[in-house]
Amino acid sequence: MQSYRAAPIDATTSARSFEARTLGAPELKEYMLANGSIWPVEHWGLGELTLVAFHYHSDLRVARAQAKAVRAEGAAATPRLPLGLTPRLEHHSLRTADQSSPWSLGFEIEIPLSYASTGEAIRSRHDALAQAAELKIGAAAWEVRARVRARLLDLYGSQAEAQLLEQETAAREALLKLLEQRLHAGAASTVEVNNARLALIDVQSRLQVARSAHERAFVALAEALAIPLSTLRGAAFDYAELQRAATVPQDVEMRRAALLNRLDIRGKLFEYAAAEADVRLEIARQYPRVSITPGFLWDQGDNIWSLAATVVPALLGNRPAIAAAQARREVEASQFEALQSKVIAQAQGADAIYASLAHALAQSEQMSALQTARVQQIERQFAAGYADRVELTAVRLETINAQRAALALRLEALRAQGALEDALQVPLAGGPLPRVPDTPSASVTGLARQ
């Protein structure tokens, strides 16, 4: 027997626990070392930050708790059939001379009989639901990783954009001074100077917007990691895993295996198996429920034994419940087919978009390389006296604009790569996805696949 133990929630303690989270916590160190990471971490890349999110994020704890609850509910729903004990106490108003007492004492035991198919169907249903819930741990882990990747990419993009805008600001300030000097010397018009001044104001405004975007990305990354914003301040980031070129699987069988291995598809298959077990259960329940009731009664020195049976037939042969279970099975089958079609279309679309952006990015980087070569040429002409500083500054501005265009395409290609990873649920770059702990079922171990 167990006694009740209260488990209250203290909001203040919970908030303090969140504020105490750091990137140097001993428990985080143990977790990261156990998952193959290095310690101490000097530069936080996608893999290291993913482990931080796995350690701290509440979505995984919620998914684990839900899976544990589903498994416990399944165990509670399939106990041994209970035995019913009914005490009997009788009083006789008519008594004879040989009766010593008007009371008779005894008991009856009710023993329900169960068909083997019924218990098997119940166990199959709850086991399928438990495995589907455990797969949701992996799905939650993938969503956590996808958010960390997206927010880290936003941080990288806003930082790179701000750096280019700072270079452009410095170049336009230098160009404005040169044009003002020319204006004083009568070699430039007021229109040229005003245009340069307006361009400088515009780039300064865009720089402030980029810095605000960088701060928002910083806040969003802290939220994705489930750590305080102050903890993330001062951390050095490594964007190499994001910038690594992704190798998209071209083999048809490999891509098909990735689509079939998606956690939501596998989970939906388990949910369909639970619906199938429901049909089997209702089919088994169309037979009457039978229980036998042996009894014993002591009546004035006379031992009386009895045996009774109870038969409860199913209403209408259980046809309404069977029809309802079959309808639920059809719903699950339709939902699985709809999900599979959606996943295939999503993967094909993400693949096409990524291929298109990768091609455009290659062309943009070629143009950027040509522009860099042109800058070097003008610098040589400037050193030889064949080009002035205004022309050199102008070509450097053109190079910065080309770099910004290439950056924009690179970010779009990396976002498309993330969408393709989400569609296949396979990391295309950045190494394998770290394992998620506390997943007793082998059905979620595929989350750590390459």
**Which shape, going by the Cα principal axes?**
elongated
Describe the largest sheet. 4 strands, antiparallel
Largest sheet, spatial ordering of strands: 1-2-3-4
Tell me how many strands there are: 4
The CATH class assignment is Mainly Alpha
CATH topology: Outer membrane efflux proteins (OEP)
Order of helices and strands: HHHHEEHHHHHHEEHH
The CATH architecture assignment turns out to be Up-down Bundle
Estimate the helix proportion, in percent: 55-70%
Structure description:
With 450 residues, the protein is α+β, with helices and mostly antiparallel strands. The protein has a single domain, classed as Outer membrane efflux proteins (OEP), CATH 1.20.1600. 66% of the residues lie in helices and 9% in strands. The protein is built from twelve helices and four strands. It has helices spanning 11-19, 26-34, 46-56, 58-77, 116-185, 190-225, 229-232, 240-243, 252-260, 263-284, 319-384, 389-424, and strands spanning 84-91, 103-113, 289-299, 302-312. The protein has a four-stranded antiparallel beta sheet, with no helix packed on it. The longest helix has 70 residues, at 116-185. The two termini are 47 Å apart.
List keywords for this structure.
elongated, 12 helices, alpha+beta, about 10% strand, single chain, Outer membrane efflux proteins (OEP), about 450 residues
List the helices and strands and how they pair.
Elements: H1 11-19, H2 26-34, H3 46-56, H4 58-77, E1 84-91, E2 103-113, H5 116-185, H6 190-225, H7 229-232, H8 240-243, H9 252-260, H10 263-284, E3 289-299, E4 302-312, H11 319-384, H12 389-424
